[in-house]
Design goal:
By secondary structure, this protein is of the alpha+beta class. Helices cover 43% and strands 15% of the residues. The chain is built from eight helices and six strands; from the N terminus they run H-H-E-H-H-H-H-E-H-E-H-E-E-E. The radius of gyration is 19 Å and the shape is globular.
Length: 223
């Protein structure tokens, strides 16, 4: 077995999953996901992360409301400043365009977290310089592990976009002040299968020695 190809396949086929089957994932799967997060790299091995497992319907509903409100504010701002219109200018189907705008500006795009079987709140110590980067590495590890086990996951920042929502979240879940809420991750068994969304080619993002000098020419690396 070519382990490199196996790992590449897991990374290349991972997608963000927002619709889940109602059945709970196992405790063994949750622990495997947490172990993957724990093994992430961190600056000076600070390991500034902590994880809060949320399974109760009441608590998931609270997080769903916070995420819906946070996304609604964010995307309404994008709509008012016309960034959203610019982003979707290639979407010529008027009705579909209206549905997309409504889903985003209403915050419904993030309300799905209330329906996920398991949510993990990722928090990090404020006094560690690299906390945002360290916790992001842990989150990616957890998402990759979940996908490798046939589960789905989605990284959601909506509840931390506005400090007011973060304060409410911290108060409700009794998170100490020395922590910053980094993100919420939803996990569960996917309801449907999705193909990965297109990625930009390497030719558009890799440069040689200095910005602007293309590393790839005709699909091959420069010498």
């Amino acid at each position: 077995m070519d382990i490199g190809k196996v790992v590449a396949d897991v990374i290349n086929t991972r997608v963000s999953v927002r619709r889940y089957l109602p059945e709970m994932i196992t405790e063994e799967e949750i622990i495997a996901i947490l172990e993957a997060g724990r093994r992430a790299p961190s600056g000076e091995n600070a390991q500034p992360w902590s994880f809060i497992i949320v399974k109760s319907e009441e608590n998931k509903k609270i997080l769903g409301q916070l995420c819906k409100r946070g996304s609604g504010r964010h995307f309404t701002g994008e709509y008012v400043t016309r960034k959203m219109q610019e982003r979707f200018e290639s979407l010529t189907d008027i009705q579909k365009r209206k549905r997309v705008f409504k889903k985003l500006t209403s915050g419904d795009v993030s309300a799905f977290v209330a329906e996920a079987p398991v949510l993990i709140i990722v928090i990090g110590l404020k006094n560690v310089l690299n906390t945002p980067y360290d916790c992001s590495a842990a989150i990616e590890n957890m998402l990759i592990m979940a996908h490798a086990m046939g589960l789905g996951g989605c990284w959601v920042n909506a509840s931390t976009l506005d400090i007011r929502d973060e304060v409410m979240l911290k108060n409700f879940f009794e998170i100490p002040n020395e922590y910053k809420v980094i993100s919420i991750i939803a996990f569960g068994k996917p309801r449907t299968k999705h193909k990965p969304r297109p990625r930009k080619p390497l030719e558009q993002m890799v440069y040689k020695e200095k910005y602007g000098i293309k590393y790839f020419i005709g699909g091959e690396g420069c010498e």
